[in-house]
């Protein structure tokens, strides 16, 4: 037992969660993944073949899409979708500032200009601010379903239709997420993209996918992935300025094996997310990312919490130190809005941009727990809740 006069582990007290208890690891794999990889190895066709076609069909069915094309990354998927939508120099694309840089950099790499629209309390793009950002040069909107919490697609699609804009969903966090009509993320707009990078809920280390119900867009995407070839065409005929964004057979086989586990894993994440929502929301100064009742399924990629530092009783940074010392792995979210990232700040183009909700989350209040911890037991969730409560109950120690 600790001799410290303090209760908090950060100051010498006993951690609430024993170091003997471990959190789920990520990625997870078993005999199915091993067999899938060995099957490709022994088959000796390691390149863009049957396994790629299989995962495209499987993931299209999983998301409720007519077409799925896999590629090397979620970032590449964004770029290819923008190219297929014929977005380029002189065009503007509306994006949120609270997201991974690829949402905006893909626009920039096409020669177009990202226009940043603030988020709201959902942590997603605020639909009420979109129309003020539309100009004659605006061609598309990229809503990001952050953490798998689907944006207000009813409102966004209505705005897009009114102004004749394309909608490209950045659904990189949203495997299996579904909206009110049962449609999956990615096919709520014109097309959508997913990431299979190493930290994602569905992963092959790297990889990405594009989904759409539009056959013309799908054909363009397929061509751009495969060096501008036409599907079923002559091998050395190149009809478009494409690139080599082909996914390999090993990654495709691994994704098929991982997809078999995803529904059960998602059910666990959803259950544990609901437990945390209910209990953590009772602690003064803590607000979990809200759930939209129109969303029928959530992917729970990251568990996000907004902290009111004044109500909680200490700074976010001090709170994070105390939580981690007690045994819960929690961290601050994105440190900067995208328009403050060096790549955009140095241009001077965004000097007058202000997105107050995003800035408040980045600088003061956003913290998150990664999805692998939502695969823990109910006892693990009880530990998380108890740790937050312990830090709140002893917050006065953090000012001593």
Description:
With 400 residues, the protein is an alpha/beta fold. It has two domains: 31-257, 3-Layer(aba) Sandwich (Aspartate Aminotransferase, domain 2); 261-399, Alpha-Beta Complex (Aspartate Aminotransferase, domain 1), CATH 3.90.1150.10. Helix content is 36%, strand content 12%. The chain has twelve helices and eleven strands. It has helices at 31-43, 50-63, 74-84, 102-109, 153-163, 215-225, 249-280, 309-312, 316-326, 342-345, 356-365, 378-393, and strands spanning 67-71, 92-95, 113-116, 138-141, 166-170, 191-195, 208-212, 286-288, 302-307, 331-332, 366-370. Strands 1-7-6-5-4-2-3 form a seven-stranded mixed β-sheet, sandwiched between helices. Helix 5 links the parallel strand 4 (138-141) and strand 5 (166-170). Helix 3 (74-84) packs across helix 4 (102-109) and helix 3 (74-84) packs across helix 6. The longest helix has 32 residues, at 249-280. It is globular. The mean pLDDT is 96.
